[in-house]
Structure formats: structure tokens, C-alpha cells
Amino acid sequence: MPPTSLLDAPASPIAPEERMYLDVYDAIMSHRLHAGTKLTEQGLGDIYGLARHHVRRVLARLAADGLVDLERNRGARIASPGAREADDMFELRQVLEAKVMDKLAGRLTEADGRALRDLIARERDAWMRGDRPLWIRLSAEFHIELAKLAGNALLVDALRRLVSRTTLLISNLDNAGQQPCSFDEHAAVVDALQHHDSARAQAQMARHLGQCACRLLARSPARFDLRSALGKA
């Protein structure tokens, strides 16, 4: 998942390898590249004018994020978790994020609360402007920021992969009040944390994750054009 600094507009040109990473990341999270889609080193290299070793590094980063599965002698494919894995991932997220709520309810500072609310405001703004890739990135980052504030680096790493891998399963809903990862639900979590109410924070997070699990993406057709999906047509 892109680091927090990449959530803002870059001040300088992005290197081609980083540009490939961000383009593929956004295309996956926006469902322009569908689950199970094969990504070839040759195809990506041709689009971005990069040698294969650069492409391999990008694919390795995406695999570490949980968005791409690398198979020996079969190349890279967009992660395609089955129903059982999806259930297992949301079950594990419920456990881990409940622990995050418990740790934060008594230690969230005013500055932490302001930073989280700023992130939610940016998430809401991206949704209202129709910037789906940025909105998805910010929505996922909210959960990672909570884990960071809890102060457990191993927990952050575990949630980073789980959040990415479950977010790509969430359906592409456009109806009002049907955001796959709602900023209003995020705000309710922060409200509980700022009132130092661990039980309510855990309940709000559990409800939020339950809503996310109910919005799983139906499988999409396999036909696609890689250049178009990456905005390079």
C-alpha cells in the first residue's frame, strides 16, 4: 500500500517504476484490473518503457501489499481470494482491529484525533469529487493509521496486507449511503475513541467491518485491455 506521503499530490515528477506501481495499485483498487487478471513482465515493460527487472520489483511490492499473487513459472496475477479466504480475512481483521480499538481508547491524543478527522475529511472530499482511486487509498489508509497509533509495528504490517487484500474484494457501489468503506462509519469509530469508550469503539469497528464484508465484489469478466485499464490507451 502506498505510504501516507503519497496520499498528497507529489511535488516533483514520479520515477517510472514508482509511476507503474501507483498506476497498477489504483487500477486494482478501482476494479479496472479484475481479480485473476494476469500481469506479464513484457506487457508492463512495454507500456512503461522499463526493463523486466524494474517490473519484477514493482510486482514484488504489489505482492507484499497482498494485491498480486506470484506463482513460480506462472507469473503474476491480481489476487483473487475465494469466499473462504475472504471470510477468514474479515474474521482476522475483526480480532486485530478490536485490539487496536482497545489500545487506542485510552491513549488517543487530541492531535491524533484531529489527524484522523482530517484523513476522513479528505476521504469524504475525494468521494464527493468522484476521485475513486484516491478515495479508496485514503479509506484503506484510515485503518493503517489506527494501527500505527496503537504502536505495534507487527500489527501494522499484518493489517496493511489484510486491508489491501480485503479492499480489492469490496464491490464498486455508487448509491448514496453505500460506500464500500464508509467515511461516516470511520467518523463514528473516532467519536468513540475520543470519548475513551473502548466497548463502543470496538462495537463501531465491528459493525463497520461487518458492513464491508457484506459488500463483496461479484466476479467480473476476464476480458480487458491492459493499456486502457492503466490509463495508457
Q: Are there runs of 5+ residues with pLDDT below 50, and where? A: 3-9, 173-177
Query: Which geometry do the CA atoms define?
Result: globular
Using only C-alpha atoms, the radius of gyration works out to: 18 Å
Largest sheet: 3 strands, antiparallel
Percent of residues in helices: 55-70%
Q: How much beta, percentage-wise? A: under 5%
Q: How many extended strands? A: 3
The largest beta-sheet arranges its strands as: 1-3-2
Tally of separate helices: 10
Mean pLDDT: 84
Order of helices and strands, N to C? Answer: HEHHEEHHHHHHH
Q: Class by helix and strand content?
A: mainly alpha
Distance between the termini: 25 Å
Tell me what the structure shows.
Helix 2 (41-48) packs across helix 3 (52-64) and helix 4 packs across helix 7. The protein has ten helices and three strands, in the order αβααββααααααα. By secondary structure, it is mostly helical. Mean pLDDT is 84; it is low at 3-9 and 173-177. A hairpin with a 3-residue loop joins strand 2 (68-71) and strand 3. The protein is globular, with a radius of gyration of 18 Å. The two termini are 25 Å apart.
